[in-house]
Amino acid sequence: MEAKTEMNELELFQKYLKIENELRMLKFDPNSELESELSDELVSLKDELENIENNEFSIKAKNTILSQIDSYIDSINRAIPGLKLLRDQAMMHRDTLFGNILKDIRILMTEKIYGFQNPVYLYYTTDEREIKNNNTIEISDLSSFLRNEKRLLTELQNINFISLNNYYDDLRTRIIEHFKISN
To answer: Per-residue pLDDT tens for 138-159?
Structure first.
């Protein structure tokens, strides 16, 4: 007989995200009978994550995300006055800058990482064509936005991966609305 191994908080969250993604994919297969079963499992995992006794992983993730936000604020405010951040970061996608920020935060939530990275990949410009084409962001605007995000995350109570996931989803929505990103 094989002993049942208990999952830690991070493993439960990774399983939660996997099932959430599977449910999203099932929307393309309306004949699937798995949807109800997976939905029930997702509800059960959500309840378990919201009521978990040992939430050390989500607390560490929150603190690391706060450090990452501080690192962004510090890095962008070290730019030479007059420069603007490129939205596309010299890539093909118009809003790569925001995608990178969200990706960094998501990785800190879903992996066992307790350090942050300095965003050394930031590209700046004074090119009038980029400014006219609305491909730039004012450093002060992004800095202010990130300071507010830090405040919101700091004030977040009852830390667990569900509350962090909700914060992440809300952050994504706030970025889209504030920086006028079209889907």
So the answer is: 999 999 999 999 999 999 999 9
Helix (H, G, I), strand (E, B) or coil at 37: helix
Q: What is the pLDDT of residues 81-135, one digit of tens each?
A: 999 999 888 776 778 899 989 999 999 998 877 676 777 678 898 989 888 888 8
Query: H helices within 9-95, ranges in order?
Result: 9-26, 34-50, 56-77
The answer for residues whose C-beta is within 8 angstroms of residue 101's C-beta and 6 or more apart is 72, 175
Annotated domain spans of the chain: 9-50, 56-178
Residues 86, 135 contacting (CB under 8 angstroms): yes
Query: Which residues lie below 8 Å from residue 26, measured CB to CB, with a gap of 6+?
Result: 32, 34, 35, 38
With vertex at residue 140, the alpha carbon angle to CA 138 and CA 144, rounded to the nearest 5 degrees, is 125
34 within 8 A of 26, measured Cβ to Cβ? yes
Burial zone of 1 (CB within 10 Å; 0-12 exposed, 13-18 middle, 19+ buried): exposed
Helix (H) or strand (E) holding 84: strand 84-86
Taking the whole predicted model, whether its pTM rises above 0.85 is answered as yes
Q: Which of 101, 12, 115 is nearest to 61 (CA)?
A: 115
Burial of 43 (0-12, 13-18, 19+ CB in 10 A): exposed
Contact 67, 116 (CB under 8 A): yes
